[in-house]
Automatic annotation (TrEMBL):
It is found in: Cell membrane. This is Uncharacterized membrane protein YraQ (UPF0718 family). The keyword ATP-binding does not apply. Keywords: Cell membrane, Membrane, Transmembrane, Transmembrane helix.
Amino acid sequence: MSIIEGIFNGLNNMLLKMTWLWDLVKLLVEKVFRLSIEDRLGGSIHFFIYDSIKIFILLSVLIFLISYIQSYFPPERTKKILGNFKGIKGNVIGALLGTITPFCSCSSIPIFIGFTSAGLPLGVTFSFLISSPLVDLASLLVLMSFFGAKIAIAYVVVGLILAIVGGTIIDKLNMKEYVEDYVFAIPNVEGEVIETTRKDRIAYCKSQVIEIVHRVWVYILVGVGIGAAIHNWIPQELVEKIIGVNNPFAVVLATIIGVPMYGDIFGTLPIAEALFGKGVGVGTVLSFMMAVTALSLPSIIMLSKVVKKKLLGLFVFIVTTGILIIGYVFNALSYLFI
């Protein structure tokens, strides 16, 4: 067992944590910039360069791999799969299919409209809508590189549970009448599922990498910049006082702070990493990430054009309540993950 664990840790350090890159950037900062990474400026430069390169490498590789898997599940095929399931099974399948769509919350909404107009159960489409920006296979591996396997797996599991529970509640309350009428008036053209060749899939994967990186690179650099500032310039005592483990309202504050931000998990991770390093509870960090990815203000505004106020309010209430519960539970059980 120790041999297997050693191999896993070695691969994790080389492929996910990229300790070799950390050493190279340290050498760059110390030899070229003539700065020590123990100092604020040197540490900030090291944090920014290392995290930026690591995230872009992981993002490109993982999006390519996930897109290859996703190429087997185009929207038409996904609709057919989801159409075969109802009730809790449908919510589970909807949430799981959301994990292979590397979209932010805003880009998930057009797919949500397509599924709803196609007559899929509303609860199933909401399970998809919640899980798609919140959880994906790429985020699992990237989270492992920052926080380790336990926290990464826990994040994915609770994200799926939140998506399944949220979709189930909406389904049970029969909220179909609170979807805007024009959504159901959209013609549902049954497209034929075209089988693609391996060459086509490779081309699709390349285009997805280019498209997604082009869409999120600014948010990643901003997130890394904020993370570097928190990590090296903001005193730990101040961070702990505001959202530290001793503040009973830390989870609430982290959720409120996360909502106005717009980004995906890749831009949020450097900030979460810096907060975690400053002593912020694991539950508070998870709540912050979930609020940014699932409840961002731009996505709420877009969703308000698709559903009526009552359904929108219910969606926000369910997701917010779930995020808060997850935050407090994980803070209470943090000893299991650290």
